[in-house]
From TrEMBL:
EAL domain: residues covered: 23-278
Protein name as it appears in the record: Diguanylate cyclase/phosphodiesterase
Native organism: Paractinoplanes toevensis
Length: 280
C-alpha cells in the first residue's frame, strides 16, 4: 500500500484509516472532557534535599476516560496541542493552581509549600491572549503570583516568536518561570542561561536514566556551578533512589523531585503529608 501515491495510500490501508479515526475521536472527546468533569490534577512534591520537606508542588493533568480509563498526559496533551483544546485546558489548570494556592495560603499559611508549578505548552505561549488570561485569573482568584510558577520547555520558548516578551510580562506580574526538561533540546548552554527564567529543571534522563551513570552524571555535577553563577535555581527531576539523591546533594543541589519523595497525588494526600511534616 505504501507504494501507492497520494490519497490512495489511505484508501488501501484500512489500518491507517482506523488510526486516523481513533485520533479524530480522541480529539472530539477531549474537547468535551472538561465539561464532562473528566479532567483532574495531581500534585507531585518538589523537596528541599537537605530537610526532605516539600517546598513546592508540580501540578500534573490527568484525563479519566469513561471507557478507556486513565489516559496519560503524554498521549492527550499532544492531541490537545494539535487541536487547540490545550488553550482551554491550560486556562483551567492555571485556575486550579491559583485556587489551590490561595486556599493553602489561607488554611496553612507558611506551613504550606510555597510554590505551585504549572506546565504551559508551546501553543499557550504562542497565544497573544495568554498574559491577559493569566492576569485575569490571578485577579479573580486573589492568588499570590509569587506563589506560582510556570514551566516551559526550551523548544516551546525558542520556537515561539513572542515567547521572551511574554515570559518577561509574566515575571513582571510576579510569577516565576522554570525551564522544563533542561538538556533535552539542542541549544547551547549560554543561550539557555540567558533566557528570562528563574529555575532550571534538569531533565530526568540525566538524573535517573541510563545516561545518569556516565555522561548525565557529569552534566548534573557541572551544571550546578553555572546556575549558581547565573542566580538561577536548579531542580533535579526524576530522582528515584537515595543514591541519586545523595549524589545530587553532594554536587550542591538543593531542590529535587521524583518518585523517591512522592508520586503525583491528589491534593488531599499532599496536604496530609505536609501537615504531618509540620506536626512532627
Ligand atoms: P513533565 O512536565 O516533565 O512532568 C514530569 C513527569 O515526570 C510527570 O509525568 C511525572 O509523573 C514524571 N515523574 C516524576 N517523578 C518521576 C520519577 O522519579 N521517575 C519517572 N520515570 N518519572 C517521574 P506525567 O504526569 O505523566 O506528565 C507527563 C508530561 O505531560 C509532563 O512532563 C508535561 O510535559 C505534560 N503535562 C502534564 N500535565 C500538564 C499540564 O497541565 N499542561 C501541559 N501543557 N502539559 C502537561
Ligand atoms: Ca513540568
Ligand atoms: Ca520535566
Ligand atoms: Ca515534558
Amino acid at each position: 500500500a505504501k507504494a501507492a501515491g497520494g490519497n490512495q495510500w489511505h484508501w488501501f490501508d484500512p489500518g491507517m484509516d482506523r488510526a486516523a479515526d481513533e485520533a479524530a475521536r480522541m480529539a472530539a472527546e477531549l474537547s468535551q472532557a472538561l465539561l464532562r468533569d473528566q479532567i483532574f490534577v495531581l500534585f507531585q512534591p518538589i523537596v528541599d534535599l537537605n530537610t526532605g520537606t516539600a517546598v513546592g508542588a508540580e501540578m500534573l493533568m490527568r484525563w479519566r476516560h469513561p471507557e478507556q480509563g486513565l489516559i496519560p498526559p503524554d498521549v492527550f496533551i499532544p492531541v490537545a496541542e494539535r487541536t487547540g483544546t490545550i488553550i482551554e485546558l491550560g486556562r483551567w489548570v492555571f485556575e486550579q493552581a491559583c485556587l489551590r494556592s490561595a486556599d493553602w495560603d489561607r488554611r496553612f499559611g507558611t506551613a504550606a509549600p510555597e510554590k505551585i508549578s504549572v506546565n504551559v505548552s508551546a501553543r499557550q505561549l504562542a497565544d497573544p491572549a495568554f498574559v491577559a488570561t493569566v492576569r485575569d485569573i490571578l485577579d479573580r482568584t486573589g492568588a499570590d503570583p509569587a506563589h506560582l510558577m510556570i514551566e516551559v520547555t526550551e523548544t516551546a520558548v525558542l520556537d515561539t516568536g513572542d515567547a521572551l516578551t511574554r515570559l518577561d510580562a509574566l515575571r513582571a506580574l510576579g510569577l516565576r518561570v522554570a525551564l522544563d526538561d533542561f538538556g533535552t533540546g539542542h541549544s547551547s548552554l549560554s543561550l539557555l542561561l540567558d533566557l528570562p527564567v528563574d529555575v532550571l529543571k534538569v531533565d530526568k534522563s540525566f538524573v535517573s536514566g541510563e545516561a545518569a551513570e556516565h555522561a548525565g552524571a557529569i552534566v548534573v555535577r557541572n551544571l550546578i556551578g553555572f546556575t549558581d553563577d547565573f542566580g538561577i535555581d536548579a531542580v533535579a527531576e526524576g530522582v528515584e533512589t537515595s543514591a541519586q539523591a545523595d549524589r545530587l546533594r553532594s554536587a550542591g543541589y538543593r531542590l529535587a523531585q521524583g518518585y523517591l519523595f512522592g508520586r503525583p497525588m491528589p491534593a488531599a494526600d499532599f496536604e496530609a503529608s505536609f501537615r504531618r511534616a509540620t506536626a512532627a
